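[DERIVE STRUCTURE TOKENS]
===
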Amino acid sequence: MTEPDLSALRERAERGDASATDELIELATERGDLNELRRLADAGSSTATDELIQLAAEQGDLRELRRLSDGGNATATDQLIELATELDDMDELRRLADQGNTTAAEQLAELTAE
């Protein structure tokens, strides 16, 4: 897709064209474009948010998952805990546990017991 085509698609999406939004999400997911997905998610697309979480988890992007988690997204929190556990990131698990997340506290306890 050319840049002018992409710009036209973005304009349609901004005017509320759901199929244009869906197409942008699909293209961004295929390209691994976190910025485009973030823009669409921030504009209110729950589908873009779901794809952003999945892609951020696949790419190991703790920062993006943290941003979404801190914004109240439970799925992002779950993915953040999973990724932090895989990476043995005690600081991240401790941060989440200190915020009252019991799953993070349990993972932290398991990792420190090993």
